[in-house]
Amino acid sequence: MIDSLRQVQVVGALARLAGHGGWARVLAGQPLETELDRADARLLVAAGVLRERDGGRLEPVDLHPWYDDPQTLACGIVAELRRALMHATDCDDLIPADPDEIVAMGIASRSVASILADAVLPMLPVTRDRLDDGTARFLDVGVGTGAIAQVLCEEFPGIEAVGLDVSVDALAIAKERLAGSRVGERIELRQQSVTELHEECAYDLAWMPQIFLCRTDLEQGLDRVHTALKPGCWLVMPVATGASDCTELERAAVEHEALVRGGGPMSVELAGDLLRQAGFTEVRDMLGVAQSLVMARKSPVSAVSAA
Ligand SMILES: C[S@@+](CC[C@H](N)C(=O)[O-])C[C@H]1O[C@@H](n2cnc3c(N)ncnc32)[C@H](O)[C@@H]1O
């Protein structure tokens, strides 16, 4: 109990240092200026977040996508703290309205998008070729701030994306962000649930994160996305499941977060069963630390032409 509360103190110190100039000075190798900054840093050294090099220079001990940008780090941690506070007061918000939280989730999505572009897409025949030749249409379910659609449109010139979301707040942030981006004109944002998607054979790639969708939306969504994909094209679905070698605390944290986010924990096996029930074939997976990616294909031969 006492240890956990100390960790809250450490997290608070990290957010303060990030939000008030100290973290930027650490990254630049400059000395901290105020007594409170130095006290925050001492706590972070003792907690193993920072380490002191020869000559007293401070540096982060490990790598994290948020560390490079103090603003991101501050917003991300404050959002996590607020979410913990909402949970503590039994006020979990399945569709977040807190702009810091929406932005923090978008930032987390940027690193996922790079994994998608660099490690996953090369494994997906047909879809890969359409992305490479710039003719693909990408469906981003739960587009949030638009980070994934933006990264893919930047990496694959010419492709177009449609982003669906039920959150007016997230879509407003996405609209503002994308207006300032060079790929904004290639991304269409729609306030629409995936359960209301009625297009057929319109997309070459779909992304639908299970952790954010309640079970009924997920199951209906899989049917809709299957119909909306072109034959031979792929859905990539992150699934909330801990890696087989994760610690008990890591597993409990993944399952807890999945429940709070709305989708609940789900095994890769169950995800595969749901995908096959929706008509997908060639189900594959790529196990990750906190979430695993499941890839599934719409058959290259449509049921009608095969009959
Ligand atoms: C937090 S975002 C994920 C981050 C996002 N990739 C980004 O770049 O910011 C997940 C979104 O799924 C949305 N969502 C939940 N249920 C949905 C549904 N049935 N259809 C479409 N979007 C949904 C939520 O409103 C939320 O904004």
Automatic annotation (TrEMBL):
Residues in Methyltransferase type domain copies: 139-235
Domain of life: Bacteria
Gene3D superfamilies per record: Vaccinia Virus protein VP39 (3.40.50.150)
Alphabetical keyword list: Methyltransferase, Transferase
GO BP annotations listed: methylation
GO MF, any single term: methyltransferase activity
Annotated protein name in UniProt: Methyltransferase
